[in-house]
UniProtKB/TrEMBL annotation:
UniProt domain RagB/SusD: residue ranges: 393-469
Cytoplasm among keywords: no
Annotated SUPFAM superfamilies: TPR-like
Protein name: RagB/SusD domain-containing protein
Keywords attached to this entry: Cell outer membrane, Membrane, Signal
Signal peptide feature range: 1-18
Keyword Signal: yes
InterPro entries assigned to the protein according to its UniProt record, in alphabetical order: SusD_RagB_dom, TPR-like_helical_dom_sf
Pfam families found in the cross-reference section: SusD_RagB
């Protein structure tokens, strides 16, 4: 896999690299395509190689830390318990769950660095005489990375290739960044390829851009608000645009997959809009499975016994909801590991009960799980990507698009059509049909369908549910809807201003 590395100090982002600690995680070195600096500016490179590097680097989305953890651990769907000395890591996980992070948090810095660094790689490609199609793909990918910076931090630094390594990057406000990103995607759309459903969709396409435009306009009230914490006013014209963009995605052949777990496998699925290219989403099962659940053909190593869900979230599912559980573990090659939420006694593929190799007790996953001092069996585990399925990580999928359209119709006042779409999904998932729709129903359905996919924080903020007390959350101050600008970034770029509260 190639990775573009530019030999310069990205002053707004790359003050100093701090690799966040992670239990049993091995980071492998990659081959690199080097983009050098000459004089006061950064030279350009081969656009084909640079574009390939951008796609190879999509693996950043399936890491269990940084980008994913900022969007997921800060929500009410996940908890990262410290188990003895495991997953302590100087408190980086616990502070995300409790909303007590600060400007020195390693994963806040790493996310800032990575997202801004990837966006600059797109700048390099755009300055390298790309074809119209290559330029469109670079703009779409740049928009995706800038979107995450805007969403997390509320301001976005930008430096073009011709500014020179010593120039301080300009800083876009959240409102300015929103406009810039929308412009990027709008300009890119005509030249992006029209791609339909596939087993792997690791190329920026019209459907990918339209899905991102839908998400942007669904959250426009948040990103344009004078107060990041709200309250938010959702304009009907913006909701109409969400519907337009969602319909454009469907027109390219994408749709709900009647089999909830199929999109997370190697199979073709109408749900797969934009996927990772390289490797497998291995972190997604290793981060939650118990040490003693490995050792079978699809996962020979010992998992990391990390993250769990909260009983409060698990209880939102009806017993017959297809998204809650599927028994597959006793099939050949599945190692006793089922799909969905794992609770109670765990088994081998031959139905032998697993005994915890540390405690010497039966491995029984419990509903309760403390944030600190958790024993090895505590917590309900979650498997969407199964090691036996060899799937690719999903960055955008149609179920999200379907729910964005549902929410947009609801916010625009078309509750009858919104309820119809909501129940179309619930019927596919074997859940009882809803008789009415409101904010709580809408947010709950997004969680039931999209759990552990890294977007729960954004959803909770939009619905005004982020700053509330639940298990082990100790800080509910409104300022936490934005992360701090990393202290190292502020020290190196005086154009950046720290977000309120930090």
């Amino acid at each position: 896999m190639k990775k573009t590395i530019s030999k310069f100090t990205y002053l707004s982002a790359l003050g100093a690299f701090a690799l966040s600690s992670c239990t049993d995680l091995v980071v492998q070195e990659k081959d690199s395509t080097i983009v050098k600096t000459t004089g006061g500016s950064t030279t350009t490179g081969n656009p084909t190689e640079l574009l390939n590097a951008l796609y190879n680097d999509l693996g950043v989305f399936n890491d269990q830390a940084n980008l994913y953890s900022l969007g997921q651990h800060t929500s009410a769907e996940m908890i990262p318990p410290t188990r003895g000395v495991d997953w302590g890591d100087n408190g980086v996980w616990r502070t995300l769950h409790s909303h007590t992070w600060d400007a020195t948090h390693a994963q806040v810095l790493n996310t800032w660095n990575t997202m801004n660094g990837r966006a600059f790689q797109c700048e390099q490609l755009l300055a390298s005489n790309p074809s119209p199609v290559q330029a469109a793909e670079a703009k779409a990918i740049r928009a995706m990375y800038m979107y995450h910076v805007m969403d997390f931090f509320g301001q976005v630094p930008r430096r073009t290739v011709d500014q020179g390594v010593d120039a301080l990057p300009t800083v876009l406000t959240r409102s300015e960044a929103f406009d810039f990103i929308v412009k990027d995607l709008t300009e890119a759309l005509p030249n992006l390829p029209r791609l339909g459903p596939a087993a792997i969709n690791a190329r920026a396409s019209k459907a990918m851009a339209n899905a991102l435009l839908a998400r942007l306009h669904l959250n426009k009230a948040v990103y344009k608000s004078a107060k990041p914490e709200g309250p938010y006013t959702f304009d009907k014209a913006d909701m109409d645009k969400v519907v337009q963009y969602c319909d454009a995605v469907k027109a390219d052949g994408f749709d709900l997959d009647p089999d909830f777990f199929n999109p997370f496998t190697a199979n073709v699925s109408k749900d797969k809009i934009f996927t990772d290219l390289q490797g497998s989403p291995r972190n997604r099962w290793m981060m939650t499975m118990h040490y003693d659940q490995g050792g079978f053909d699809a996962e020979k190593d010992g998992p990391w016994n990390g993250f769990a869900t909260l009983a409060e979230f698990y209880d939102k599912f009806e017993a017959n909801d297809a998204r809650r559980f599927r028994e597959v573990g006793f099939q050949k090659g599945y190692g006793g590991v089922h799909k969905g939420f794992l609770i109670g006694q765990q088994f081998r593929e031959d139905k032998t009960p697993i005994v915890d190799s540390r405690s010497k007790k039966p491995l029984i996953f419990t509903r309760d799980v403390p944030l600190a001092g958790a024993s090895t069996e505590k917590g309900i585990r979650v498997i969407k990507y199964h090691p036996a399925d060899f799937g690719k990580y999903l960055i955008f999928r149609y179920a999200d698009v379907h729910l964005m359209k549902t929410e947009a119709l609801y916010r625009a006042g078309n509750t009858a059509e919104a309820l119809k779409l909501l129940n179309e999904l619930r019927t596919l998932r074997k859940a009882t049909t809803a008789t009415s729709i409101n904010d709580d129903v809408m947010l709950r359905e997004r969680g039931l369908e999209l759990y552990w996919e890294g977007i729960a924080r954004t959803d909770e903020i939009r619905f005004g549910k982020f700053n509330r007390k639940y298990q082990d959350v100790t800080n509910i101050e409104p300022y936490t809807v934005l992360f701090p600008i990393p202290a190292l970034a502020i020290a190196s770029n005086t154009n950046l201003k720290q977000n309120p509260g930090y």
